[in-house]
Specification:
The chain contains no helices and 10 strands. It has 159 residues and is mainly beta. The chain has one domain (4-158): Immunoglobulin-like, CATH 2.60.40. The strands form 2 sheets. Strands 1, 2, 3, 5, 6, 8 and 9 form a 7-stranded antiparallel beta sheet that branches. Strands 7-4-10 form a 3-stranded antiparallel beta sheet, with no helix packed on it.
């Protein structure tokens, strides 16, 4: 049997965990499966941070070589997406963080390398990875209205 993968997002002050989320949208609200029309990022501001992680279940021997990056979707003027890997959960904030720009490639330094929740490079039993934090940041020169859709890729090897 193969591992089952799903995204998980944690929100709120006391960390409410939501497994099986369906989107990684960022906006001006700390919620999962966020609707960007209802909670858009106001230009000149940052979105609430997203604390996401991969969850693996069912039967497998090992998950390794876990990588994350933005694989598609153009940024509009004044828009950046910040990301950090293997961070601890903190209450999501809309204050701009100092994370690096999200990687946009598939190899070498152009990816975030993700660890297991235990801090190792492999997962050998059902469970989670460490957190990936993402945040959209805008400037006053960012066009008002919706930004372009983005695609994020999470890649891993399974034995």
């Amino acid at each position: 049997m193969a591992a089952t993968f799903q995204w998980s997002e944690s929100n709120t002050l006391n960390e409410t965990v939501h497994d099986g989320i369906t989107n990684l949208n960022t906006g001006n609200n700390d919620s999962y499966n966020l609707n960007v029309s209802t909670y858009p990022v106001t230009r000149g501001n940052a979105s609430f941070e997203k604390y996401i992680r991969a969850k693996f279940s069912d039967t497998f021997t090992e998950i390794s070589n876990m990588k994350f990056w933005k694989s598609n979707g153009e940024l509009v003027g004044g828009e950046t997406i910040k990301a950090a890997a293997n961070v601890a959960f903190a209450t999501p904030s809309a204050t701009p963080n100092g994370d690096d720009n999200i990687p946009i490639g598939e190899s070498g330094d152009d990816v975030l390398t993700i660890q297991s929740a235990a801090g190792t490079p492999t997962i050998t039993a059902p469970g989670y990875t460490k957190y990936i934090r993402i945040q959209t940041q805008t400037t006053v020169s960012t066009p008002s209205g919706s930004v372009n859709q983005k695609t994020y890729t999470f890649q891993y090897d399974e034995v």
